[in-house]
Amino acid sequence: MVIPKGMKTDILDTLADSMSKISPYPERQHYENVAKALVEKHPSLKEPGSGKGWYGWFHSLKFKLGNYRQKLSAAGCPEVRVNKRIGEDAKGSRVKKSKKGEVHYCPDPPEGLSAEDMEGKRKMIEVHHIHAYTSYLHFGFVFVKPTILS
Questions:
Q1: Which of 82, 88, 122, 134 is the most buried (most CB within 10 A)?
Q2: Domain contains 30
Q3: Residue 72: inside a domain
Q4: If we measure between CA atoms, which residue out of 17, 96, 29 comes closest to residue 64?
Q5: What does each C-alpha distance from 2 to 46, 52, 58, 59, 96 come to in angstroms?
C-alpha cells in the first residue's frame, strides 16, 4: 500500500513526540522497537521493498526525531539546548550526547535557592576539599620522619 506523504508525516510526528517525552536522544534499539511495533500493529504500513518491512520507518523516524530536537532546542527545551552549538563553537567541537548512565543536563536550582546560592555552596565544598588535602599534606610533613642521608 502506498501511504500519502501527509499521513506518513502525521504518523512520524506523533511517534517523534512520544519518543522525545521519554528521551530526546534514544538509542538505536529504541528506534527499531518503535518501527517494529508500528508495522506489527498496522501491517498495511509494511514496506514491500524492504526485507524486514520496517527498516524505512526506522530511518524516517530517526531523521524526524533529529528535526524534532532542533524544534525543541529553538523552543528552549533545556535537555536539548545543552548540546546546541553557539557562535564560534558551531565550527569547532561540540558537546557530545550523553552515554548510557550519564546525565548531561543541568537542572534548575531547588526552590528558594538561586544560581548564586548554589555557586556559593559549590565554593564552600571546594574549599573544604582543599583544606582536607592540605591537612593531609601537613600531617605527612609533621608526623612522618624525613629520611636523613649521611
A1: 82
A2: yes
A3: yes
A4: 17
A5: 10, 17, 17, 17, 38
**The C-alpha cell of 141 is what?**
610533613
Distance in angstroms (rounded) separating the CA atoms of residues 142 and 118 = 36
- Per-residue pLDDT of 109-146, as tens digits, reads 778 888 888 888 888 888 887 777 776 666 655 555 55
The H or E element containing residue 43 is: none
72 Cβ contact list (under 8 Å, min separation 6): 20, 24, 79, 80
Asked if residues 84 and 90 have their Cβ atoms less than 8 Å apart, the reply is no
pTM, full prediction: 0.52
Kindly state the cell numbers that stand for 133: 588535602
Residue 56 counted as domain residue: yes
Look up residue 83 and give its amino acid.
N
Torsion sign over Cα 33, 36, 41, 44: positive
How many CB atoms within 10 Å of residue 68? 20
Place of cell 546560592: 117
